[in-house]
Design a protein that fits this description.
With about 375 residues, the protein is mainly alpha-helical. About 55% of the residues lie in helices and about 5% in strands. It is built from twelve helices and nine strands. It has a three-stranded antiparallel β-sheet with strand order 1-8-9, with no helix packed on it. A hairpin with a 4-residue loop joins strand 4 and strand 5.
């Protein structure tokens, strides 16, 4: 009991420590609100119209920023569906096998009914021995959360959460609105910062003349420090947002940018890229009205992702649109195959839907082109 109790205390202490970066961000945001709203807008700005406009725009940006940050922190990362977990009998069978090749054969048999197309660097089925499941494509085990996360990008200490399929859009909006928040503060605080900064370098007998627009020493300190803080955060946020925009355009995660996904034919860093438009819609969805709002609107279920390399894997079910339930290799060979559950069928047909849309679009474009040629003839 003693070792178990000490482990629980240690885990509790680590959980508290993980919230320190989030608490730091919350305190900085709370101070910036006080400095901007009270010290700058209410105490320092004398023109009523300018004050009202600044406060209205500031609060709109502030609400969107806090909303996106909240969603990023408290949206639970999605885990693989139960179809990817080993059954009790499969676990026993896997434990009885000592040789790695025999274990891989068992895993390959289970993976035949699942939309799994990526492999390890050695070509083996990606299996998590901690969670006892076959990893879906783009899924990784987080050592901090101690669970497998769908389309894991990274574990962010500033939100104390894993950034993955369920909250990646929120994370992107959090970066965008936090950058907009800092830039707005920098732009509107600039003239008052310059007034204070220039006054600080003048002779003592002319100091009061240059400080007439700033009411007291406390406001001057907040205005000066607020400008420096906003500029500093703007630089770091701009670089981070630019990098993640590049990842979205390429349909990659941070982990995939560091280590490219491996398919049966080999490593391919662009294996999941479908073009800029489809890559963007995979994260933000099809409806434009939901793009700037921190609500989930992405496409897919996080367990399977469309890729032009799907049909290159002979061990996976065929993606022929003429069948409602894809046929596995074992069934094609005449061996008995277990029936697919509803969620398995949904997983397997999700990639077919993308293929059908693409082929239909291509056929439509070719038909329109043919009609145009006939008309010109």
């Amino acid at each position: 009991m003693a070792p178990s109790g000490s482990r629980n205390i240690k885990k509790g202490c680590w959980r508290v420590l993980y919230w320190i970066p989030v608490l730091f961000i919350a305190l900085v945001v709370a101070w910036s609100y006080y400095a901007y709203v009270l010290q700058l807008c209410i105490e320092s700005i004398e023109h009523t119209g300018e004050k009202v406009i600044y406060l209205l725009v500031y609060h709109v940006v502030f609400i969107m920023f806090v909303w996106a940050y909240w969603q990023t922190i408290f949206t639970r990362p999605m885990n693989p569906l139960k179809e990817f977990h080993l059954s009790y009998s499969d676990k026993e069978l896997l434990e009885r096998e000592d040789r790695g090749e025999s274990q891989q054969e068992i895993l390959r048999r289970i993976a035949r009914d699942l939309p799994i197309y990526t492999r390890t660097n050695s070509g083996a089925i990606r299996f998590c021995d901690r969670c006892q499941l076959l990893k879906p494509d783009r899924c990784h085990h987080c050592s901090v959360c101690n669970k497998c996360i769908l389309k894991m990008d990274h574990h962010c200490p500033w939100v104390n959460n894993c950034v993955g399929f369920s909250n990646y859009k929120f994370f992107m909006l959090f970066l965008a609105y936090s950058l907009l928040y800092c830039l707005f503060i920098t732009a509107t605080d600039l003239q008052y910062f310059i007034k204070f900064w220039l006054a600080g370098g003048r002779a003592h007998f002319r100091l009061r003349e240059y400080l007439n627009g700033l009411p007291d020493t406390q406001a001057k300190f907040h205005i000066l420090f607020l400008f420096f803080s906003a500029c500093m955060f703007s630089v770091s946020l701009a670089s981070l947002l630019t990098y993640h925009c590049w990842l979205v355009c390429r349909n990659r995660s941070t982990l995939e940018a560091v280590r490219a996904p491996v398919f049966r034919h080999g490593t391919d860093k662009s294996g999941f890229s479908l073009g800029f438009s489809k890559n963007f819609r995979q994260v933000f969805g099809d409806e434009v009205k939901y793009w700037p709002i921190p609500v989930f609107s992405g496409l897919g279920d996080g367990c399977s992702f469309p890729t032009c390399l799907v049909n290159l894997d002979p061990e996976q079910p065929s993606s022929s649109p003429t069948r409602s339930h894809p046929v596995s290799k074992s069934a094609a060979d005449g061996r008995q195959s277990k029936p697919l559950t509803e969620s398995q069928s949904r997983l397997l047909t999700s990639t077919i839907c993308w293929s059908e849309i693409d082929s239909a679009t291509d056929r439509k474009g070719a038909s329109n082109q043919g009609m145009t040629i006939e008309h010109e003839a």
